[in-house]
Amino acid sequence: MPVSMHIWFDMKLTAAQLDGSNMSVRAQHPWPLEDDEEASGLDLTLDEKTELSHFCDVISVGAKGPPIFTQGQHADHVFYVNEGIVQGRHTIRSGVRQSVALYWPGDFFGLARDGMFFNSAEAVIDCTLYRYPIRKLEKFLISRPRIQHKFLMKAVHDIRKTQRQLIIMGALDVARRLAVFLVDCCGHREYFDTGTQHLTIPISRHDIADHIGTSAETVTRAINTLEKKGLIRRETPWKLEIKTSELLAFSSLD
């Protein structure tokens, strides 16, 4: 796929591919042209980004549309978040759904077990994703051990994030879980203004509730608690003035 190629087309994917959803797909150079480490989250060089761009599709997924993929669906791709936020969810046999992760720009997702996706994935805001065929990516990484090592380091980082989330869910009350979530949001410069300390909350209260294991009403009460403690100040329902160090100290999470 030539790097200079820019082709847009609408594509109705089969149910076996992406659960019957309509997505806009384009073939182009997906990585930023500047050597921007933060954009990739993998510390890739410009040449490495260019090599990876040769065998991926760029997919635009609308918020609250059909799932990107569903639990138990055949897994033949992995996905990279370029823009937006994706929520991973797992459904147990009783029908209860649990949020397992939020995937931010720079994250890969698409965990498989026995060739099937272990979780479902949904866009919680409009997203641009890079979709990589698993077999092509495996072949590519085998021949490029340096890039393979960077992917391994990213996987180790994601395991640490999962362990941290287990601690948050098991040891903290709802107000402290919310405090950690807000601090994490502040790490994403597209939503947090370091000059004014203003955070634009990127997802709905229902999605926040799913992520921290509570209800939307309890999220509202937790926001009130944090505001009464002087840790945040609401300017609008979606914009907060944040005291990040105080919030992190309140959460009791190192």
From TrEMBL:
SMART domains: HTH_CRP (SM00419)
GO molecular function terms noted in the UniProt entry: DNA binding; DNA-binding transcription factor activity
Swiss-Prot/TrEMBL keywords: DNA-binding, Transcription, Transcription regulation
Segments forming domain HTH crp-type: 172-246
Xref: CDD domains: CAP_ED (cd00038), HTH_CRP (cd00092)
A Gene Ontology term for the protein's cellular component: cytosol
Signal peptide bounds: none
The keyword DNA-binding belongs to this UniProt entry's keyword annotation: yes
Domain spans labelled Cyclic nucleotide-binding: 43-110
Protein name, UniProt field: Crp/Fnr family transcriptional regulator
